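Human: Here is a favour to ask of a fellow structure person. Comparing notes only helps if you start from a blank page. Give me a protein, with the fold worked out from its sequence. Please set it down just below, with no commentary around it:

Assistant:
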Amino acid sequence: MKPFIPQLVYIEPQALDYPLGRELKEKFEKMGIEIKETTSHNQIRNLPGDTDLQKYRVAKSTLVVGVRRTLKFDTSKPSAEYAIPLATGCMGHCHYCYLQTTLGSKPYIRTYVNLDEIFEQAEKYMDERKPEITRFEAACTSDIVGIDHLTHSLKKAIEFFGRTELGRLRFVTKFHHVDHLLDAKHNGHTRFRFSVNSRYVIKNFEPGTSSFDQRLEAAKKVANAGYPLGFIVAPIYMHDDWQEGYFELFERLAESLEGESIPDLSFELIQHRFTKPAKKVIEKHYPKTKLELDESKRKYKWGKYGIGKYVYPTEEANDLETTISSYIQQFFPHATIAYFT
């Protein structure tokens, strides 16, 4: 899979007040990519396309270079204390993704160029929590690795947290384009996680992302570069023969990492869930999806901001947690399972 290159770029005028904004404008001009000006990402209208589906796909290949105006960080439990806002949006087409609804009708990708201001805010949060460690999640609203070969914002963040005493960075990706991050001075303060899943889930629900084998090759590179490594199994999905499918996942993962020295391996487990708004958007954007979205087969659980979500019934969720945990204990007995949710 080739690295992401946007078809269309919008630049907010304020972005050009920052070195990274000017650098990206020059880079995209040299690449011959169409560049337009927008006063704000909210003002973007009339993307190319005759149908909603066509416009949606164009939006997913559109990059907005802008300024992050809101510097109050969201919380990011259970992964971290805060979400650090480096980018928003993703070029992947994962059918189940919660960004389907959080990004609404504007699923284009936004990268923020006022990095020093974002890092200064992170410093304030770290100061407030002294002497405790403060963790920051960089992939709450995007797959930041997918665009970092263009922006190097993530690399700057890795090196920023590498210099801090009490700050730790975390992010997860489905992309394998990590070579430029391997020489970053991370000082062991960044946990690099890869999203993995069964063959069925990757094949049917994760178009536009790197293959499982590509992710594993990237994971080995990351481990050899000394990063703390982790894997997120998400969403854990009850497809036909799911037990065999997930057993094979861990079997392949263990074979791939055999002989690698990974002293602090972690796993995070997230069962499949969806909201009513997400269901509508998913069925609109991916009308032929095989994703099971039947509320009658799920348990309703109140969520953040009063928006409820449909998760697996308690007995099925317990089965998922017990089964997946047993596979991890079998193949990776020294690994940590951070949580199941």
In short: Residues 8-340 form a domain with the pyruvate-formate lyase- activating enzyme fold (CATH 3.80.30.30). Residues 293 and 306 are 20 Å apart (CA to CA). The mean pLDDT is 94.
